[in-house]
Amino acid sequence: MIRITDTTLSCLENFDIEEAKLRELLSLLLLSGANVIEMPALFFERLELAPSPRYMLRIENPEEAGRFKGISRFICRKNGFFHSLPIISEIQVNDVKEINFLSRYENLRNVRITGLDDVLCHNYESVFKNLRKHFGDKVEFCPENTFSCAAAAALEWAVSGGTDLAASFGGIGNKAPLEEVLISLRVAKRFKPNASYEVFPRIAEIMEELLGERYPGNKAVIGAAIFDVESGIHIDGILKKPEMYEPFPPELVGRRRRFIIGKHSGKKAIRTKLLEHGIDPNNIRIAELLEEVRAQSVKRLSGIPDEEFLKLSEFFRRRGE
Amino acid sequence: MKALKYIVDTTLRDGEQSPGLAMNMEQKLEIARLLDEAGIYQIEAGIPAMGRIETETISRIMAMRKKSKISLWNRLKIDDIKKSMECAPDIIHMSVPVSYVLIYSKLNKNKTWVTKNLFSCVEYALSGGFEVTVGFEDASRADITFMIALAKQLKEMGVSRIRFADTVGVMTPTRTYQAIRDIVENTGVEVEMHAHNDLGMAVANSIVAAKAGSNYIDTTILGIGERAGNCDFLKFIRAASIYDFGVTEKTAAAVQQSTLGILAKQLAAFV
């Protein structure tokens, strides 16, 4: 069993969020494939939520836990040694060199290890084994992303037998991006929780609004352009069998494939695009049109919008037909 | 001392293949100059089969570069390779589909056909006196024993390096380590890792490939490339400090910054 904690809401603690937005975000995260949603205790109170085993509250001091009846999991950075079991102690370990210092927490159970940004550069399998030896099998790992390896670290944690891990949507707060963790677990471990990944684009939209910036179009799993195809060789393959050049179907993550016409288009792509718009490619001088498309694309420094492409194709219509 | 390894930059080839992105000649020349000055070992400069503008760009890059090796990308077609040879590059690279899904469904051929065709293309380029490297396209979904057998024969023929292309970006670190290790240990051939970022693991997979014995790592500036892109040059250099790739993080950051200026219009969507 793999248990994933989503920490997105905790990373948004200091953001000014309308109540309705917050509620929508929570409901989407509950569908996203994360098993547990971590949030600041403040959010829980503000939304007047009913207790659920799927909520984990972030508290400042262990004593606060007593105020929330019915909640069975809390997380706290102040890891006093005397609190009762449902409070997870969060321990920051910046890099693998610090692993040796963990022996002073030896008797602690219910621990989240946050950090280990560089673990992929080292013998990660032995580091992971070590962590489980120190803290028991239930230790939760929350890798951080300073070296762009957090999703990989989270995945390898699960592959090596770790059961609990934490991530955040889009990787907010320098964490492993939740969506990358979920999809890579699906590809590598056939992990298929009862979830609908089609909610990713809507979550991304809300996050973009809150953060005031857009995710890059090519951001893994959630980028709006990751299923765009242009090069002739890839379009040719995808038309025969999509899995040739797609790591997973676009529909899985709520997206659609788009054929872009541009500098790298081939004849197949041109014919396909014409057919898409109800034009018989046999009536068009394809080779000449392709040459013009390439020249125009370089001039524009981008692909050719459909409307422009259709106008262009009219110039290359065969005569006398 | 840190082990020496090498960057193969493919911004001008796989990077430009980002859908909706096109560069003009001046931009390509400027980027090539940046990479050359930064001390990048190898620049994959383009695909001569694309046509006249591409070959002219390549010739001008050849004329101006000082240190970087220039390589050109090819399909397994003698005509394409001829065009590459006319550009007189340092390295001729050719890509061979190695997964069954590509060989049987896309090419509609079989392993024997692919092997025969590959060998004759390799011989042709070698006979022209060129250094030849071969890319295993879709290696992540291919049969490892087939790749090992091919790599052994290619090495005997005089091919200097094999590129392990995770074409659809589905590799994970431990799987990457095992595959690269298997090829290196069984053939002794030099391996170049070409990672895509579909699962967000391009940087991690490239580091792990280096640990497994791959001495060449493919990157693009800002990680541009098909779909979720390739291994991001700056992010990789920052993360792979256990090795010496001949580039400091500061230099890599400067290259990225200058590229943002050169491709300001195109890269609006990437930053």
Helix and strand content put the structural class of chain A at alpha/beta
Q: What is the level 1 CATH name of chain B?
A: Alpha Beta
Instruction: Using the 3D structure, state the CATH architecture of the largest domain in chain A.
Output: Alpha-Beta Barrel
End-to-end Cα distance of chain B: 35 Å
Describe the structure.
The complex is a heterodimer of chains A (321) and B (271). With 321 residues, chain A is of the alpha/beta class. Chain A contains 11 helices and 10 strands. In chain A, helix 2 (19-31) packs antiparallel against helix 7 (200-211) and helix 5 (150-159) packs parallel to helix 6 (178-189). By secondary structure, chain B is of the alpha/beta class. Chain B has helices at 11-15, 25-37, 52-64, 78-86, 100-106, 111-127, 144-157, 173-187, 202-211, 233-239, 249-262, and strands spanning 6-9, 42-46, 69-74, 91-97, 131-137, 161-165, 190-194, 216-219. In chain B, helix 2 packs antiparallel against helix 11 (249-262) and helix 8 (173-187) runs parallel beside helix 9. Chains A and B meet through helix 5, helix 6, strand 9, helix 8 and helix 10 of A and helix 5, helix 8, helix 9 and helix 10 of B.
